[in-house]
Hints:
About 65% of the residues lie in helices and about 5% in strands. By secondary structure, it is mostly helical. It has one domain. α1 (about 5-30) runs antiparallel to α2, α2 (about 55-70) runs antiparallel to α4 and α7 packs antiparallel against α10 (about 265-275). The protein is globular, with a radius of gyration of 19 Å. It starts with a helix and ends in an 8-residue tail after the last helix.
Amino acid sequence: xxxxxxxxxxxxxxxxxxxxxxxxxxxxxxxxxxxxxxxxxxxxxxxxxxxxxxxxxxxxxxxxxxxxxxxxxxxxxxxxxxxxxxxxxxxxxxxxxxxxxxxxxxxxxxxxxxxxxxxxxxxxxxxxxxxxxxxxxxxxxxxxxxxxxxxxxxxxxxxxxxxxxxxxxxxxxxxxxxxxxxxxxxxxxxxxxxxxxxxxxxxxxxxxxxxxxxxxxxxxxxxxxxxxxxxxxxxxxxxxxxxxxxxxxxxxxxxxxxxxxxxxxxxxxxxxxxxxxxxxxxxxxxxxxxxxxxxxxxxx
Length: 300
């Protein structure tokens, strides 16, 4: 299992590459006209590039590639198909979001693109095995339910991040905190024999997510010089869905190593509810509002 230092190196690479490429992407976006103009729904007062997701995706790919070249991550990349699944699914969902940023696509088309990314994850085995319901029980998912629950979780997470991406620094900041918490949590679970399957891609995805958020945030703080757009928001949603699925969704509730320490079982639920409570509640309220107005749930 890779040490914490190796993960921090990968996170730093993601942060540096994202930080350096974001202003370059911003200049290209202005030349291409990939900007959003001020209006009554937006807080910014000047035309602002909204394809910062390009830099985030570049940072993700660069750090992912660096991990592949490091010997300490060889067991993960050599023995499992999951890394390829994450890379392919991230590419699919980023492309869907980028197209929506520059040309605008219908809400159903965006949902279908997200479902395709979810199918890619399932195909490569990036799924959850357990599903926790608040104050009720932990359900061991049958093979029939695994694909559906995994795709639904992805849809919910991507919509949650996409819907809160309205205030400068909010989405990237919340996701950085959430992913950071899951990284620490996955490291703790990794110390318990048999608690989660090792090597687990959740830690790598979580630290990558933290890195690209940290690299993007300096350019996105108020007043933002660039927005992540749907390309960035959907990418972050997918990465967060992956890390929560393969960490919280694989923490064995029957493992005797935790004894009576029930917080190990509750943490996969409590962490996202507390840290991601804002986007989750915002998503629920937004769905209710849009349903009442007969608007598409995935529309901007």
